[in-house]
Write a structure and sequence with these properties.
Blueprint lengths: L1 H22 L4 E4 L1 H7 L1 H38 L5 H54 L4 E4 L13 E2 L1 H8 L3
Parallel strand pairs: 1-2, 1-3
């Protein structure tokens, strides 16, 4: 009798554990983070600011290119009528200007990358914070970014949290 009661209790415990485990099945979510970033209003503002910065750098590059063109025309016009000393000075001036343009271009590329990162960082932070909040509210164990194309399989049981995050951020 005791043995039967013990076996019955163990069986009841196993059934209860399995029932509880199946009731608490892990939940997974997914979102296309880039799609979210594209519809965030802050992105348009950062793009406008970046375009302004880019135009400013391009304006400076245009001035330098114009100066180069003028000096090149001057060199070509005077090439046959001036002494070797003057030709060498003009050629040296052109080489210096070419080097300055190349240096400016390299620095400008770095500055544009830095500016873009600086402008986008708070937008990505806001999006990631909203994803974390929705994930916690929904009781999700993981949220996968399906926009990265690294996800190899997505079950239909995975919750698309993009609409929930959009609501959290007040985006229609």
């Amino acid at each position: 009798m005791r043995h039967l009661l013990k076996t019955l209790l163990i069986a009841l415990f196993v059934v209860a554990t399995v029932s509880f485990a199946s009731a608490q099945a892990p939940k997974f979510g997914h979102i296309d983070l880039q799609a979210l970033i594209q519809i965030m209003p802050e992105r348009a503002n950062s793009e406008a600011e970046f375009k302004k910065f880019q135009d400013e750098l391009q304006g400076q590059m245009d001035v330098m290119q114009e100066e180069y063109s003028k000096k090149l025309e001057e060199f070509q016009a005077k090439q046959d009528s001036v002494s070797d000393f003057i030709k060498n000075a003009l050629a040296s001036d052109l080489q210096d200007l070419t080097q300055r343009i190349q240096n400016f271009n390299q620095v400008a590329q770095q500055q544009m990358q830095t500016k873009q990162n600086e402008l986008l960082a708070p937008i990505f932070k806001k999006a990631e914070d909203a994803v974390q909040e929705v994930g916690k509210e929904q009781g999700l164990l993981y949220v996968f970014d399906v926009g990265t194309r690294v996800l190899l399989y997505k079950s239909n049981d995975s919750v698309d949290i993009l609409p929930l995050v959009k609501t959290k951020l007040g985006i229609q």
